[in-house]
Amino acid sequence: xxxxxxxxxxxxxxxxxxxxxxxxxxxxxxxxxxxxxxxxxxxxxxxxxxxxxxxxxxxxxxxxxxxxxxxxxxxxxxxxxxxxxxxxxxxxxxxxxxxxxxxxxxxxxxxxxxxxxxxxxxxxxxxxxxxxxxxxxxxxxxxxxxxxxxxxxxxxxxxxxxxxxxxxxxxxxxxxxxxxxxxxxxxxxxxxxxxxxxxxxxxxxxxxxxxxxxxxxxxxxxxxxxxxxxxxxxxxxxxxxxxxxxxxxxxxxxxxxxxxxxxxxxxxxxxxxxxxxxxxxxxxxxxxxxxxxxxxxxxxxxxxxxxxxxxxxxxxxxxxxxxxxxx
Length: 327
Known about the structure:
Blueprint: E1 4-10, H1 17-25, E2 34-40, H2 47-57, E3 62-67, H3 73-83, E4 88-91, E5 96-98, H4 102-111, E6 117-125, H5 131-139, H6 143-146, E7 158-159, E8 167-169, H7 170-176, H8 187-197, E9 202-213, H9 218-238, H10 245-263, H11 268-296, H12 301-325
Parallel strand pairs: 1-2, 1-4, 2-3, 6-9
Antiparallel strand pairs: 4-8, 5-9, 6-8, 7-9
């Protein structure tokens, strides 16, 4: 009898899909009790061919592909869950690499009822060798960049508001419903909001670890965080009471800059306030860059990390405001 179904949303992931599959194959959890269900959005690159080759060379791992014509993450997750046969669902992404004991630790935490959904910490690595990729990976794990998103840096097991990916009993979906397909991003957080509102708990264990490959350049990063901010605002319209300070600060910062710039046209004080706020932000960014540059012994990070963090904040905050104003 299958105990675990590993579900993976996927679209054009030929550069990383084999890393994931090899990591799943290397899990300490018994292969005979595990299956992998990949919901593919009809990939146009070599993703499907690579999966097929892996299937033929690893026949002892149950591996299936289901089509996801919707080509969105929530629709992929729902198609995969519907096709899954395991009692427990372990979600992974096609650009992640779980540690060998990832599935086993998730199963143990669920069996011990530490949480209705459990997850761990990302080890964020660059998706490329350039200075942008390196800076983005470090910025995405820095508290100033991501606030209190504990799954990016904590070393303490605790109850949290969300976890990356997430593992849960199949019965949870029957209780709170599937992922919301109206949200093209932020579907996992919305799912976890419903879980918490139903009285459930979300458990983060830093011993549950996976490698996550960050975006390769600042343009990709800006697009990613624009999507995050845009769909976070859409989600919070439905659940306004769930807003966290880490989610409110970027749009408030962007809004304050815009307001001060507009007022500065006829109110000289606003110009000084704009300069003071911008300078203060630049100082904090520079301190983060200095800290990481010294720690990593790479002085290029003094400029590149602040640039990455600023990209995250400004893209996220601007998209959040845009989503609220232009429904």
